[in-house]
Design brief:
The chain is an alpha+beta fold and about 120 residues long. The protein contains four helices and three strands; from the N terminus they run αββααβα. The chain is globular.
């Protein structure tokens, strides 16, 4: 797996991504970012870092996948608050910009599973 340029993901990218993923998880569980929604039901499934570590793409999934679009819109809107809270948890030369995206992998897996069930009937 690499990015669009086909470069392999470095250990550093993986390490930083994992660190940010864990920190965001804690921030959401404790509702520390003061965003106008309950964040304790949001799971951060993965964080992918850009090559230069300046952008973190966080894949998130609200509890039960409910109101996902709405949740992500609010996270995007208040990402500055989340980033500010994150800055108190991790020490980095440049704190990355955080982009939020819906994790589609569970939905995709569910679709595949349903197709398999239909085929086996």
């Amino acid at each position: 797996m690499g990015d669009k340029l086909g470069k392999p993901v470095s250990q550093r990218q993986l390490r930083v991504g994992e660190m940010i993923k864990q920190s965001l998880g804690i921030i959401f569980v404790k509702n520390e970012a003061k965003v106008p929604i309950e964040t304790n039901g949001i799971t951060v499934t993965e964080v992918k870092m850009s090559q230069d570590l300046k952008v973190a793409k966080a894949f998130v999934l609200p509890l039960g996948g409910k109101n996902a679009e709405e949740t992500i819109t609010i996270l995007k809107e208040f990402s500055f608050l989340i980033r500010k809270t994150l800055s108190k948890k991790i020490t980095m030369k440049f704190l990355p910009k955080i982009l939020f995206a819906k994790d589609e992998s569970f939905e995709y897996a569910e679709k595949i599973e349903n197709l398999i069930k239909q085929t086996n009937k």
